[in-house]
Design a protein that fits this description.
Blueprint (H helix, E strand, L loop, with lengths): L10 E8 L4 E8 L1 H7 L6 H19 L5 E8 L4 E9 L3 E8 L9 H5 L3 E8 L5 E6 L6 H13 L3 E7 L4 E8 L7 H11 L4 H6 L2 H9 L4 E3 L3 E5 L5 H8 L4 H11 L2 E4 L6 E4 L1 H12 L9
Parallel strand pairs: 5-11
Antiparallel strand pairs: 1-2, 1-10, 1-11, 2-9, 3-4, 3-6, 4-5, 6-7, 8-9, 12-13
Helix pairs in contact: 9-10
Length: 297
C-alpha cells in the first residue's frame, strides 16, 4: 500500500480512492483554523464539541461538490443552542460561530441542544448567485447521522461520516459509495465497518496516511495530494454598509447622536467596523442614487 509523503504542518483535506472497490473518501483535519475560531469565544465544551464537528463536516461536504461558491451549515432552534453557523468555500476557507444561553440540558446531543430546531444546508454559486437550500431532518443521534441522511436523499449515494472535536483540533472521515455498473455491498459494508472503528484520538492526532494504514492496510488505496484548509472571514465594510441600509437614515443619525458613532463587530472574526456621521451620510446618499436598469440586484 503506497502513500504520498505529506508535510505534517497545516490544516488539510485529503481525498482517497479504493482501487478495487467503488468507494471514495476524504479526511479533514484542522488545528490552526479551529484555534482562530475559538480565539474570540469562550465556548463551554457542550457547545464547542458540536460546533467543531460541524466545522469538520462543512469541509468534507464542500469537497464532494463541484462548484465555485460556498456551503453553509446552519442550525436554528429554541433550545440552549439557538444558532450555529459554519461556512466553507470551495477553496476551503472556513469560518464558524455559535450562540447559546444557559441553563444547558443534561444531554449534549444536538437534538436536545437545539430543542425545536432545524439544520439547513445552503449552497451558493459565486458566479450566478444561485442558491440551493435543503433542510436536514434531525433523524439519528449525532450531526454525522443527520448529514448522512441528507446526502443519501440529495445525492442518492450511500455515505458514512465520522467526526471528532476537542479544544485543540477537529477532524472528519467521509466514505461514499460511488455510482457504477458493479456495486459490491460486501465491499461497502466492510469498508464502513472498518471506518467505524476510528477513534477520536486517531482522527485528531494521526496523519491521514497513518489513519488509512491503520484502517485499510489490506486494501489498495490511492491517497491524493492534500488540499489546504484555512480560516477565512468574508465580512467587509461594504457588506456592513449594506446591512446598515436596512435601518432608516434617521435611526442611524439618532444612534450617532447618542453614541458618537455606529460600531459593528463581526461575530466570526471579531473585526470592528466603525461609521461616523460623514460615513452614514455617504451610505444613504449612495442608496438614493438611481440605479442602472441593466444591473440585476
Amino acid at each position: 500500500m503506497n502513500f504520498t509523503l505529506m508535510d505534517s504542518k497545516g490544516d488539510k483535506l485529503h481525498r482517497f480512492l479504493f482501487d478495487k472497490a467503488n468507494i471514495r473518501g476524504e479526511i479533514a483535519q484542522m488545528h490552526e483554523s479551529w484555534q482562530t475560531m475559538l480565539a474570540n469565544h469562550e465556548y463551554p465544551e457542550i457547545i464547542r464539541r458540536p460546533l467543531g464537528e460541524v466545522v469538520a463536516a462543512s469541509v468534507l461536504l464542500s469537497a464532494t461538490l463541484k462548484f465555485e461558491g460556498s456551503l453553509t451549515i446552519q442550525a436554528n432552534g429554541d433550545g440552549a443552542m439557538n444558532l450555529m453557523v459554519v461556512e466553507c468555500s470551495n477553496k476551503f476557507g472556513v469560518r464558524g460561530v455559535a450562540k447559546y444561553h444557559e441553563p444547558f440540558p443534561d444531554q449534549d446531543d444536538l437534538k436536545t441542544l437545539l430543542g425545536n430546531g432545524t439544520l439547513i444546508i445552503t449552497i451558493e454559486q459565486a458566479k450566478t448567485s444561485e442558491r440551493y437550500q435543503g433542510i436536514v431532518a434531525l433523524e439519528g443521534n449525532s450531526i454525522a447521522e443527520f448529514l448522512e441522511g441528507y446526502l443519501v436523499r440529495s445525492e442518492q449515494l450511500e455515505t458514512r461520516i465520522f467526526l471528532a472535536s476537542d479544544e485543540k483540533s477537529v477532524g472528519g472521515l467521509l466514505l461514499q459509495q460511488l455510482p457504477g455498473q458493479k456495486e459490491d455491498d460486501d465491499d461497502w459494508d466492510r469498508v464502513t465497518h472498518l471506518g467505524s472503528t476510528i477513534k477520536t484520538e486517531e482522527l485528531l492526532g494521526l496523519e491521514a496516511r497513518e489513519i488509512l494504514h491503520r484502517l485499510y492496510h489490506e486494501d489498495d488505496v490511492r491517497l491524493f495530494d492534500p488540499e489546504f484548509v484555512h480560516f477565512e472571514c468574508s465580512c467587509s465594510r461594504d457588506k456592513v454598509s449594506n446591512m446598515l441600509r436596512s435601518i432608516s437614515h434617521q435611526e442611524a443619525a439618532d444612534i450617532i447622536q447618542e453614541q458618537g458613532n455606529i460600531s459593528v463587530d463581526c461575530e466570526f472574526c471579531a473585526k470592528t467596523y466603525q461609521f461616523d456621521e460623514i460615513d452614514i451620510a455617504e451610505i444613504y446618499s449612495e442608496h438614493r442614487q438611481p440605479s442602472d436598469s441593466s444591473i440585476k440586484h
